[in-house]
Specification:
Elements: H1 12-49, H2 56-72, H3 77-90
Helix pairs in contact: 2-3
């Protein structure tokens, strides 16, 4: 308990853990950005070749593999699926997704 304007002392271990979590969060966002850059390259290539942008079978396989890995790592299938669906949504979240009737391959 503190009195007046005194701030409680934060244990060093708590600060270190928070710092590590901040680093991991930054790394996660950077990985998603790198993935989106690859998806943009894929879309450009597929567009140039006249190929469909979406591959529903590949996307389903990606989700299944991710769910399996998440379960093995203790994250759980449902949490992993939710995470990967958010990652897939982030691939076209800035309005630069090609607009056509061929679909979007985010995998």
């Amino acid at each position: 308990m503190t009195h007046g304007s005194e701030q409680p002392t934060v244990p060093a271990q708590l600060l270190e853990t928070r710092h590590e979590l901040d680093r991991l969060d930054r790394d996660l966002v950077e990985l998603v950005a790198r993935r989106r850059a690859q998806v943009r390259r894929l879309w450009a290539w597929k567009d140039a070749c006249g190929l469909p942008l979406r591959d529903a079978e590949r996307e389903a396989g990606l989700l299944a593999r991710a769910e399996e890995l998440g379960a093995k790592l203790g994250l759980g299938r449902s949490a992993t699926r939710t995470l990967m669906l958010a990652v897939l949504a982030a691939m076209h979240d800035d309005g630069t997704t090609p607009d056509d009737d061929r679909g979007r391959d985010t995998t």
